[in-house]
Specification:
Blueprint lengths: L2 E7 L5 E6 L9 H21 L9 E3 L4 E6 L5 E6 L6 H17 L13 H16 L2
Helix pairs in contact: 2-3
């Protein structure tokens, strides 16, 4: 079971963090990640309006080779994780990443909300957590 990548999208739909964890390099460049984030934000927003019952938006997109999971916070920030199709307990992992984000980004006095995340402690702790998840049996 593998977590392939993590993206964080601000409430306006801008990509503020992206990191890949797969052993093979990503086939997307930085501009394509920006387009992906904006597109997902738009589709997520539309899905809340067209749902027949009240909805918080897209939570999982399943494909034959991966799953894309989304956790939206109360402030509108979206944490998006791609995993292999068999990966379970992803919501738990997304909430742990959100906890790391809260501790190392939001409590950082030098971080401006809604701007790209440039925090070494956040990177180190996310990498440590994902590495632990990916290496566990």
């Amino acid at each position: 079971m593998t977590i392939s990548s993590l993206m964080i999208i601000n409430k306006a739909g801008g990509l503020i963090y992206q990191k890949g964890f797969a052993s093979t390099p990503s086939k997307l460049d930085s501009n394509e990640y920006l387009v992906l984030a904006g597109t997902f934000h738009g589709v997520h927003t539309i899905s809340t309006r067209i749902a027949p019952v009240p909805s918080s938006g897209i939570e999982v997109i399943e494909a034959s080779t991966f799953k894309l999971h989304c956790f939206q916070t109360q402030t509108g920030t979206k944490f998006i994780m791609t995993t292999d199709p068999e990966h379970s307990r992803v919501e738990l992992h997304l909430k742990k990443i959100y906890e790391i984000y809260s501790d190392y980004v939001m409590k950082n006095p030098f971080y401006t909300p809604e701007m790209p995340i440039r925090c070494e402690l956040f990177d180190v702790n996310v990498l440590r957590y994902i590495k632990g998840v990916n290496e566990s049996p």
